[in-house]
Amino acid sequence: MSDAPNRRLVLDDTAVRRAVRRLAHEIVERAGPLNTIALVGIRTRGLPLARRLAAVVREVEGLEVPVGALDIALYRDDAFTGGSKVAVGQTHLPFDVADKTVVLVDDVLFTGRTVRAALDALMDFGRPRRIQLAVLVDRGHRELPIQPDYVGQVVATQAGQSIKVSLTEIDAGPGGEDAVHLLDTPERANGEARKAP
Amino acid sequence: MNTRTLIRGGRLLCPTTGLDAPGTLILEGGRITGASTGEVEAGASDSVLDATGCVVAPGFVDLHAHFCDPGEEHKEDLRSGGRAAVRGGFTTVVVGSQTTPVNDTRAVTEMIVRRAAAFEGCRVLPMGALTQGREGRRLTEMYDLRDAGAVALGDADVTVADAGLLRRALEYARAVGLPVFEQPEDASLAGHGVMHEGPVSTRLGLNGVPAVAEVAVVVRDLALCAATGARLHLGPLSAAESVAAVRRAKADGLPVTCAVTAAHLHLTDEAVAAAYSPQLRSRPPFRAEADREALLAGLLDGTVDAIASGHRPQSPVEKDLEFDLAEPGLVGLETALGLVLRLVLEGRVELVSALRALTTGPARVLGREASLAAGRPADVVVFDPAARARVAGADLSSRSRNTPFLGQALPGLVRFTLVGGEVRHRSTENVR
Amino acid sequence: MTQTRRHLLELAPLEAREITELLDLAESFQDISHRRIKKVPALRGMTVVLLFLEASTRTRTSFELAAKRLSADTLSIAGGTSSVVKGETLLDTTRNLAAMSPDIIVLRHKHSGSPHLLARHIDASIVNAGDGGHEHPTQGLLDALTIRQHKKRIAGLKVAIIGDIAHSRVARSNIAALGKLGADVWVCGPPTMVPPGIEALGCRATSDRDTAVRDADVVMMLRIQKERMTEELFPSDREYSQRFGLDRDVLARARPDALVMHPGPINRGVELAPDVADGPQSIILDQVANGIAVRMAVLYHCAGGGGGDA
User: Do C29 and A75 touch (CB under 8 A)?
Assistant: First the structure.
């Protein structure tokens, strides 16, 4: 796969797989007793990442960690200001969040606004004991005081650039491989919140 | 002083006399004194009206208009209505009896005649009510109304429900010598209807007025006309079957005439569907396309004697409402010619036939004559059929703006309207 | 304001795709009503006026709950308390409301086309909550959603709508929604209650109840609305019930898994026998529950959210 001049490969298929494994190990080590942990993926690309993390945990520890899906469309601060419309997806949390350590999972951490919305959404389902944040890529430029607990890869970016994460579960790209690209085109206004195609 | 007016350079067109030629019309002392196809030298004291590119025709006669005076002068009065008429090319307008108080006595008729004469508009001919208060119970003093100036008798937009009473009214009116006007609509069949009953009213969820509400009355009235021999004028008509019934009656030799409005020749119930616009609420309602076609066919074969304006002013108080709460009616004096010319442009009707329904036909309903013949009163309209003008609320002379044609460009521009030889309207617009 | 407002005035002009999108959106709102905190902040800071000039506790409370679950501020104005009854026109009343800058006005009114009147004159999104005998779009949507959830499809289903079709806005909205989604819609009632040209809306019409019910997948009974009837349309409740009502014997002619629906409130014993209304095939209460999700979806859509163009 040859990259266009305004598009640089940051993580290839192998690197993404390694990053996910490392994140899973860190979560197992630091998130507390495994039977109190739940993984919640932020739609759209946080969800397959959460499922992959759970798979690694199952493989390594032989334990099933529950996985939920969180749709934050109704909690966004830019739902009616952006140019394009946000699709509303299903939120599905097949467990009681009370007294859980909920690890929110997303692909890219940028301004922090998505995570802010996800925290509000999650809180409406109950009172978790603790909420942590795992992201595949931290690209900086935060607009809110939010920091990740687990990071797959820190990528130095400029404001006018954007990060494009492709996961095989969602993005049927050429070659069908996972990849993270740095693009020289800006994100749409107001952060990384745009997830849905 | 013997001043002459010359109308030069136009096409003289008179459906009554059959005149259709370029030439000069000569007016003198309030009357038409001649028409010349040759050159007419203008004398020093002559006033000359340039009719280049224009049609010069007898002034239009409107059988169905309402000037709301007395009673609802905020919508229209005799002055504004008369101005709207001459701006639209009408020199004679029959004003309905639905005034407040109802024009059912000599006093009201006289007042209308006297007041209208003070304004420099069209000739205003009152319709006297057929029954007192238009309540359909007791006859009016028809001889008195006639002597005061009424030219027709009718309860305007109310149908006489009692057939027995209508029979007596027809018999009596026959002796008085005036035609009886009836706008046919059976109230019980119309029910709470607010538009034509059909697929469109079903779609919109509005109560419909079935065509039979009109046809049933037309058929009854024609039977009474045959029985009494009185002159009967029906209209404005809206339904195909009504026109068919009148056609048969005319073939049978009954003294019946009928009219349609210019708007009914264009609009159907589909127009209402666009946006429930109360401007499209009308009585009778705009009906189906087949009905519209039948009205046109009636116009072409002479069943329909007259095209009326159906002028019915309403203020925003009556119109800025839910469709079924809004009052019916639209102003029509200033759009009638344009709508008729649009039909001419569409090739639906010949210009001379169209003009006949605006002049000869309605005049004869009243037992009068509209023509360019020498000796006739100089009621003349000069219009440019090629000019187009946009219907703009601010430009209307009528005090009301309730027309669905606002914003549309209609053909035809009235350059001059003369009533009794006096120029009552002169267009300063220069639209082509 | 120059932006084009989104309204929901009627279903008739919508395309199947748009109806499906609204149903999908409604489905994603459904679980909110089952959460501990039945509220999302989507319409926070927005004002929704519920202008109900015709009494309807059911639809008004459903809209009110929908708006509140989206965190909108609601202002409820009912016919009895409004100045409309004091002689003020609908436009004047609404202009006064509009001066308070509501984002959405939900209108229920007995005059067909009144939401269109507001949409022409008022700068707010207008949602039709039932206008005269014209449409009741959210009812049509919630009925479609309820059928879809039970039957997993709408295309190809035979749906019989029985009652006073002529005066029914519910019938018109259902014909529009279900017809576009591919159902075989039949309407049935005494000839006096089946208006001319109803087939043009996308259905078949009959005055024979058995023809309508035979092999139907859904039987939707309409309320006999005496308050909306201005003329003599049928001789007696007794004869109506016998010829056009739904009881167990009549229902037996439909498919065994046929659903029974009713927009409510029911005239028990007139159009619907009590044992059918409360029977296993009745999904009347599901209709009510779906009403909130559908109205959330409609409010969210009109506020500018969801798919589609503004």
Answer: no
